[in-house]
């Protein structure tokens, strides 16, 4: 999307005005029933960026949102998490009026100020997944999330006292922990999609380590692999850790050691030459990694074949 078309929304009050909603009851946190929004953005594709956190649970939503390279319908509950500064796009079907149902939780970073969650919220990796990797919820999971959103809403609608912020923060943290649990469940249960990603990862690494690209550009980066798989680096790492117990970087290193063993056992190339062919500037770095992974130096490994 053209950066000139990006609309920045700095405050939750500003978002309420844009959506033609009543003024928020709390300036730094808001829970919105999406069915209460009557505003229609028009048919032109648009990009938005918020200066606050957004947690969405959407159903029966007929705007077009693309996750990675796949388009999903909204027959089941879908959540996504947007951190401040992330750009996301909405495109409404020109022949339909925008329909919405679900819930939206908006939290300004200032609300978290001086609480432990101000730091720990950055540890929830799914805020960095962007809208490329949505969370699919079962009916039971959806009920759990909605009840927590409603608890937050009920708390800030009540008379604010010295306990209010702590209680809301505790509810928010609970919601984020449940979302973390549900993402890990999704990594395991969406087996076909996830195993396709694993197979494609293996193919991408095999091709890369067999091509001149390795010599030209050095070892593949995590970002390069994630881009090839059309997922975000954090999502890929979370998925791989859940399914295989290893990070993306460890998978890259495993493929590297596999190729190194092949060259050490089937060629007469020196260790320095093999290190160079595998994208290392310094053979010492290669030898150190090889020993870490195999408990042998490259020469010791070679000698074990003689």
Number of helices, where a helix is a run of at least 4 consecutive DSSP H or I residues: 13
Taking the alpha carbons of the first and last residues, their distance comes to: 59 Å
Low-confidence stretches: 66-74
How helical, in percent, are the residues?
40-55%
How many strand units? Answer: 11
Strand content: 15-25%
The backbone outline, from C-alpha atoms, is elongated
Mean pLDDT: 85
* Rg measurement, Å: 24 Å
Q: How is the main sheet built?
A: 5 strands, antiparallel
- In what order do the strands lie side by side in the largest sheet? 2-10-4-8-11
Structural class: alpha+beta
- List the secondary-structure elements in sequence, H or E: EHEEEEEEEEEHHEHHHHHHHHHH
Structure description:
This protein has 306 residues and is an alpha+beta fold. Helix content is 48%, strand content 16%. It is built from 13 helices and eleven strands. The protein has helices at 12-18, 109-112, 117-120, 139-157, 164-189, 191-209, 213-217, 222-229, 233-244, 248-266, 271-277, 283-294, 298-303, and strands spanning 6-9, 29-33, 46-50, 53-59, 63-64, 66-67, 70-71, 77-82, 87-92, 101-107, 135-137. Strands 2-10-4-8-11 form a five-stranded antiparallel β-sheet. Helix 4 (139-157) runs antiparallel to helix 5 (164-189) and helix 6 (191-209) packs across helix 10. The radius of gyration is 24 Å and the shape is elongated. The N and C termini lie far apart (59 Å). The model is unreliable at 66-74 (pLDDT under 50).
